[in-house]
Specification:
The protein has ten helices and 96 strands. By secondary structure, it is mainly beta. Strand 81 and strand 82 form a beta hairpin. The longest helix is centred in the N-terminal third of the chain and has 69 residues. Strands 88, 90, 91, 94, 95 and 96 form a six-stranded mixed β-sheet that branches. Strands 4-11-10-6-7 form a five-stranded mixed β-sheet. A five-stranded mixed β-sheet has the order 13-20-19-15-16, with no helix packed on it.
Length: 1451
């Protein structure tokens, strides 16, 4: 069976696309593997027959008549002659004889090669002797020339001084020649080649040295002599470039060729391999080609025949710069020898790769891999793995795309891997177009000095612009331009500079050449100058260009060049210490016009290739001077976003673009690029849809015998795995009888069904069949012949085998198995099925279902992800279990990447559907919808619509009959399928959604509501989610539509969905129902608001209130009405805010309609008026008013302090007082112990409580509760031991309780009780001591001769004793002084006939045992006729305490 046809350039470059192998080639490879196994079995059979035919010990087995089969793929057994008692087929005998002939030819070829080797060795000895003779002659000639030179010098010495100058020049010439002498050095090495037979091949290399080296060519170590084979070899040398051309190469020219360059200073060599291949076609396997590409002959080349098969292959790969990557193939090598293995070689674009710092290779253990530690753009290309052995070359190729790395920051620096010797890359932002090497001293389009091999690569930057130098391929990034920075080591003690390096032409023209070079290394410390020399090729002389003027920059333009003549150049550097050696000579340079940018490529044609790739080809540009290659861009149709397809120029005008999206439409364009820059974009290609190219289908498989009646057979088979991109039109069936050679067609016209009854068969005969499928591209390869089916009638009672086992919905742990019922049902109908499975290559079958399933499908769960299983089905009827079906193909239990599922939805018309997308769909694909895995054929209930990669199953009238499992499968794909379970919950959801769409309503963000403005206007409004420009609406009040007018202002903002109506005056007549109706297309909505009864009254009152408020605010008014708060000083403050006032506005405070005087009038300009009420009490009850008045109107604010307001004020004051309350303090009194709590203000209206041991205390004779203006107290009268304990004072402010506590026990109680006893005793003494209650003045003025009577009342218990004193002396009682005491409390002293001598201080002492007091009275006597002295009005005399008398000893 032939392989699928591929484009010629893919054959050339081994660029086979991996998508072919996804479906078709995977099975072609299986066929090829099977064929290889059969071929291997045949060869082993031949060897066995050969051994047995030469043995004489077969007599015991002769009677068995063993038959050796021939070619099993043809299914024939041809009997031949009988040898040694056994039967051998003619074909095997023929193969045996051909094998013997090949062996004889091989022996003859070996003998001839030995003879040729002997002749070659003899020729080599002759040539070596000839070379030695030539060397001796050359030495003799040199010796003779030296002698002649010495004789000439002696003769010149006789002729005098005029010959001295000639001697000096000769010596300088000789020293110059010695200075420029050097050993041979290879500049460009040989490159390996692989060519077809009868093609010519040219090997080239470049060498330099002085004297000019002599070059000799060798083949496998033997000197090549042109005379030995005239016309075979052509050896040429020109300008240091040496070539060896091999004309009409044949298979024997496969060898390693070496070139050896020699002069008096040394010798160098280079070698390369030439492989000559024989063209044998696609089907013929490759045979040994002698040597691997690019490697010298090695003793370990495997000469064993190996059969190599790739099991897993690397595919087309996309990566970014800087990433790591491993390309790996898994392969099977037969035979598997430990000490001998085939050779694995890796190629990039047909260039042999070697291991380096960045690439590592591995071959062994059934694997071959190539690893990249750091990808760069130069790594992009076609990679080929070749396994070389004597059995031929087995290779596999795939493309690697390397995209740009993420851009670095502006001005950032990044190391360049792979640079050596102190060379780095400075990455800077490129602000302009790329196209030249910036900062490297090179001209437009010239390669950057110091880059690998002296050649730079033009790579694409991240913006899709070409031209940026990237010779090393490292460090380039998005939007960055590489600038080469060379680090120079310290000059040390160098004086004379070294020669310049990298001399090259950076610009050429017909009249001049611009040379550029790098400064010498080492250069020394002194300033440098440069001298340029030129030489016309072939002249042998050098001319200094700038002899008069030294050049100080490493760039110089050379003029006066002959047009069309080639020149070579060299540069010397010089400083004050001397002149350097000349630089290396440049390659020949011809003055000609500068290369220009190429023109745009011609017409671009895109054609289908695979499901993920497209072949793009284009016409070459008209002007393609020194073209480096092409760049291809792609764009999704309609997006205008262009993406690069390749990141290195491609040298051919055809390219396969990979990584495209299946089913997407693309446009392509191409640019050409050379050293100068890129061309304009080509014309865009036509739009192309990414699909696989049309091919013939693969072969059907799984041919099964379903029934036989003795003269006919019923056959069934499975559809091909790959349809070729076009629907299969039918099948062709061939048959043949066993032991027959020729096939006979069964049907001449294509059969569309996959079941066929083959008539006209002979009962008892064996038949085999093969089937081919056909599509519009042609007839595909036939299937392998089926097994031999015997034509005999089936009579067993059990059913026949089920057939056409297929899989769908393969997921990570489950799959669905489908099959068709047996054609032969046996003696009774089929009642069910058993499903068996096992892991591939395992021997035990397991049954999935314990009981038979009546369906022809089964979902198998609980499988292991990543495992491969096979299945079979057994039908059951009343007679038992029938024969099993053919084993299914292996299936990997693993969900495909990007697996999609069936989704349910409702379209814009309200139709319910199931939807499925399949991006992998092709032109030959077909969506098949099933219910319970049976094809849907009821057009009355379902409708299927398919467009491109999208298919929908519509329900015409969804109800409960439609409940169940729906599945969809897509043909001509890799098993794409999915299912959806429609249950009752999902059914109700879909029906509700459909009803909403068919009967749409406009969703409302807000129902109809009202809003009252500050002027008393009423606004009715609602808001819809969305309103289109064509929507309509209307307002209805009490079943009457209202239009837009002055009384009903209606408007709608469709951008926000707000509809509103404003009524300026809302009155009693507006009571009723308000409705808004909206229509937007088919959608409708309505919202109503009922304003009747209390609801209407509330709106009316609010509107009226707002209207009055608006009118009130036209004059002076209160912005905030009168309200109160309590200050931190516990004062009640009445506050109001005023607005719209002026100087003439009058403000007043009133209490109970009486003007309330305040110390300071409020400042209306501040807008705040305050009235403080200190120490609030009940006397402050009343109605407080604040009034505003001027010529514009007046306003009043009222606050009544009484009832609830007064209680709230007390609570607020309690809150302030409670926060400021002091801790409880102890105060002892004669009555008992008092506990006190001080605060800012206290009044009895405050809610306070006292607690003793957590028990509330009520005021009593023993415990009295009270307080004063700044204190609250608890008086414990006559305390006892029971009064000990914890006391708590609590103030309640309505929200929080403020508490203060004191523990009155222990020492605190004892000390307080002792102090109480003392105070109590002191109070008793104070109460019962002697005292003057009253009656005596402090000053008495009396005239002489008058009688003075001083009377007072005294008290004391016991009765006090009374003593009078004058001037602190006792008064002696007489008629002049008399004292009288009545009833022990009235005391009087009388002075009769007062004289001036009676003036003085009189004192009365009242005293008992508890103490007493004295009172002083001043008596002033004046004579008759004198003025009464000015004295202060008499006041009651103040007593002075007298201490108690100490008890006498008698007591």
């Amino acid at each position: 069976m032939s392989l699928v046809a591929v484009p010629f350039y893919q054959k050339r470059h081994k660029h086979f696309d991996q998508s072919y192998r996804n479906i078709q080639t995977r099975y072609l490879l299986d066929e090829y593997t099977a064929k290889k196994k059969r071929a291997s079995a045949q060869s082993s059979l031949q060897r066995s027959v050969t051994r047995k035919s030469s043995s004489q010990r077969e007599s015991s087995r002769a009677a068995l008549g063993e038959t050796t089969l021939g070619e099993t793929t043809l299914g024939e057994t041809t009997l031949g002659e009988t040898t040694l008692g056994r039967t051998t087929c003619r074909l095997c005998a023929k193969r045996m004889s051909s094998a013997l002939e090949e062996e004889a030819q091989e022996r003859k070829r070996r003998y001839q090669s030995m003879v040729a080797a002997y002749g070659e060795a003899k020729r080599e000895r002759y040539l070596s002797e000839l070379a030695q003779l030539e060397e001796d002659v050359h030495v003799a000639r040199t010796h003779a020339r030296d002698q002649l030179d010495r004789l000439a010098l002696q003769h010149a010495g006789r002729h005098g001084l005029h010959h001295a100058v000639d001697d000096r020049l000769a010596w300088e010439r000789h020293s110059f020649e010695e200075r420029i002498s050097r050993a041979p050095e290879i500049l460009v090495r040989l490159r390996s080649h692989t060519v077809w037979e009868r093609m010519s091949v040219k090997l080239c290399f470049t060498v330099q040295g002085f004297p000019t080296p002599v070059v000799q060519w060798y083949k496998d170590g033997s000197l090549i002599c042109q005379a030995g084979e005239p016309g075979k070899y052509r050896i040429d040398s020109k300008y240091g470039v040496h070539t060896l051309e091999i004309n009409r190469a044949d298979f024997d020219d496969t060898a390693t060729y070496s070139a050896v360059a020699t002069n008096v200073h040394g010798q160098v060599s280079t070698n390369a391999a030439v492989v000559v291949r024989r063209f044998r076609g696609d089907e013929e396997p490759f045979h040994s080609v002698g040597l691997p590409i690019g490697l010298p002959l090695s003793s370990v080349i495997p000469y064993t025949h190996f059969d190599v098969q790739f099991i897993e292959k690397f595919g087309v790969t996309f990566r970014r710069e800087g990433e790591t990557l491993t390309l790996k193939c898994t392969l099977l090598v037969t035979p598997d020898l430990k000490r001998v293995q085939p050779r694995a070689e890796w190629y990039r674009d047909d260039v042999l790769l070697k291991e380096s710092k960045w690439t590592k290779m591995f071959f062994g253990e059934g694997q071959a891999s190539l690893s990249f530690s750091h990808l760069n753009k130069d790594d992009e290309g076609l990679y080929t793995l070749r396994i070389v052995s004597r059995g031929g070359i087995t290779d596999h190729s795939a493309f690697l795309f390397v995209r740009d790395a993420d851009p670095l920051g502006r001005g950032s620096r990044a190391p360049a891997p792979g640079w050596a010797g102190g060379v780095g890359v400075l990455l800077q932002d490129g602000l302009g177009e790329r196209g030249s090497c910036s900062g490297m001293g090179c001209g437009s389009g010239a390669p950057a000095p110091g880059w690998a091999g002296g050649v730079g690569s033009l790579l694409r930057d991240g913006q899709g612009k070409r031209g940026a130098c990237s010779g090393m391929g490292q460090g380039s990034g998005d939007g960055l331009r590489p600038v080469l920075t060379v680090w120079t080591p310290p000059p040390g003690e160098v004086q004379i500079p070294g020669p310049p390096t990298n001399v090259h032409a950076s610009e050429t023209s017909r009249t001049y050449v611009v040379l550029s070079w790098d400064p010498p290394e080492p250069r020394g410390k002194e300033p440098l100058m440069y001298f340029i020399e030129k030489s016309m090729v072939g002249s042998g002389s050098w001319q200094r260009v700038n002899a008069q003027t030294a050049v100080r920059s490493p760039r110089y333009a050379v003029f006066d060049l002959a047009e069309g003549k080639p020149y070579v150049f060299r540069v010397l550097s010089a400083n004050k210490h001397g002149l350097s050696d000349p630089s290396e000579i440049t390659a020949p340079i011809q003055a000609q016009d500068t290369i220009v940018v190429p023109s745009a490529p011609g017409r671009v044609l895109a054609s289908r290739n695979t499901r993920t790739s497209v072949v793009v080809q284009w016409d070459q540009p008209k002007h393609e001077e020194d073209l480096l290659g092409y760049y291809v861009d792609c764009c999704v149709a309609g997006s205008n976003i262009w993406e690069p397809c390749n990141h290195k120029p491609i040298g051919y005008n055809r390219f396969v673009v990979h990584g495209l999206t299946t089913g997407e439409q693309y446009i392509f364009r191409v640019k050409a690029v050379n050293a100068v820059g890129t061309s304009e974009n080509s014309q865009e290609s036509d739009v192309i849809k990414v699909q696989a190219a049309l091919t013939v289908p693969s072969h059907p498989y799984g041919i099964t015998l379903l029934n036989c009646d003795g003269h006919s057979m019923i056959l069934g088979w499975k559809v091909p795995k790959f349809s070729g991109g076009s629907p299969i039109l039918g099948y062709y069936i061939d048959k043949r009888e066993a032991h027959h050679k020729n096939w006979h067609e069964v049907n001449s016209s294509p059969l569309k069904e996959r079941i066929l009854t083959v008539e006209g068969l002979t009962e008892g005969s064996l038949y085999e069949f093969k089937i081919a499928a056909a599509n519009m591209a042609g007839i595909g390869q036939p299937s392998d012949p089926s097994e031999l089916f015997k034509c005999e009638a089936w009579t067993m009672p059990e059913p026949g085998p089920a057939y056409d086992l297929t899989f769908c919905e393969v997921r990570d742990t489950s799959l669905v198995l489908l099959w068709k019922p047996p054609v032969y049902s046996g003696s009774s109908p089929v009642s069910g099925y058993f499903v068996d499975y096992k892991e591939e290559d395992s021997g035990e079958w397991l049954t999935v279902n314990e009981a038979t399933t009546p369906h022809r499908y089964l979902k198998v769960c609980d499988l292991h992800q990543g495992k491969t299983y096979v299945f079979r089905v057994r039908a059951v009827n009343a007679s038992g279990v029938g024969r099993p079906s053919d084993t299914s193909e292996p299936v990997l239990v693993e969900a495909r990447p990007g697996t999609k599922e069936v989704s349910a939805g409702v379209d814009e018309e309200g139709n319910i559907y199931l939807s499925f997308d399949c991006p992998e769909v092709t032109d030959a694909s077909h969506f098949t919808w099933c219910k319970s895995y049976e094809d849907i054929a009821d057009d009355d209930r379902f409708k299927v619509e398919t467009a491109g990669d999208h298919s929908k199953l519509y329900f015409k009238n969804l109800d409960k009959e439609d409940l169940g499992t729906y599945s969809v499968s897509v043909s001509d794909t890799d098993g794409v399928s999915s299912s959806f379970v429609l249950d009752e919950e999902e059914l109700e959801r879909l029906k509700a959604l459909s009803n909403e769409i068919k009967n749409p309503t406009i969703p409302l963000k807000s129902e109809l509501a009202y809003e009252i403005f500050d002027k008393g206007q009423v606004r009715f409004w609602l808001q819809a989610e969305h309103l289109s420009p064509g929507s309509s609406y209307r307002f209805i009040i009490n079943d009457r539509e209202v239009a837009d007018s002055e009384t009903h202002r209606i408007k709608c903002d469709k951008s926000t969905g707000i509809i509103e109506m404003v009524m300026d005056r809302f009155t009693i007549d507006n009571e009723g129902t308000y409705t808004v109706q909206i229509q937007d297309g088919k959608a409708k909505s309505q919202s109503s608001l009922v304003l009747i009864g209390d609801a209407f009254k509330a709106v009316l009152e609010e509107a009226e209130f707002q209207r009055k408020e608006f009118l009130r605010k036209q004059g002076p008014h209160f912005a905030e009405y009168l309200h109160w708060d309590v200050t931190e000083e516990c004062e009640v403050r009445l506050v109001c805010k005023v607005a719209n006032t002026k100087k003439e506005t009058v403000f007043k405070w009133l209490k109970d309609d009486v003007l309330y005087e305040t110390e300071k009038m409020p400042d209306l300009e501040k807008g705040v008026c305050e009235l403080l009420i200190p120490k609030l009490s009940k006397k402050d009850h009343g109605e407080y008013k604040a009034t505003l008045k001027d010529d514009r109107g007046q306003d009043v604010s009222t606050l009544e302090i009484a009832g609830k307001v007064y209680e709230d004020m007390i609570l607020a004051m309690s809150r302030v007082c409670g926060a400021s309350a002091s801790p409880l303090k102890i105060l002892c009194t004669p009555e008992g112990i008092r506990l006190q709590c001080f605060m800012k203000y206290f009044t009895e209206e405050m809610k306070v409580n006292w607690y003793h041991k957590d028990a509330k205390i009520a005021s009593s004779e023993h415990m009295r509760i009270g307080g004063s203006g700044d204190m609250a107290w608890l008086q414990i009268c006559e305390p006892t031991e029971k009064d000990k304990g914890k006391y708590t004072f609590e103030i309640l402010d309505g929200k929080k309780n403020h508490q203060r506590s004191l523990d009155l026990s222990g020492q605190a109680f004892d000390e307080a009780f002792a102090e109480f006893q003392q105070l109590k005793a002191a109070a008793f003494a104070e109460k019962n001591r002697g005292k003057v209650i009253g009656g005596l003045p402090d000053v008495v003025t009396i005239m002489e001769g008058k009688t003075l009577n001083l009377t007072c009342t005294v008290f004391g218990n016991p009765d006090p004793e009374v003593v009078w004193f004058k001037n602190d002396k006792d008064i002696e009682l007489s008629d002049h002084f008399s004292v009288k005491v009545e009833q022990a409390k009235y005391v009087s002293m009388t002075i009769k006939g007062v004289t001036s001598e009676d003036s003085g201080k009189y004192s009365i002492h009242v005293k008992n045992k508890y103490g007493g007091e004295k009172i002083d009275v001043t008596v002033s006597v004046y004579k008759h006729g004198e003025e009464i002295p000015d004295v202060v009005l008499p006041q009651q005399a103040k007593p002075k305490l007298l201490p108690a008398a100490a008890p006498s000893p008698a007591h």
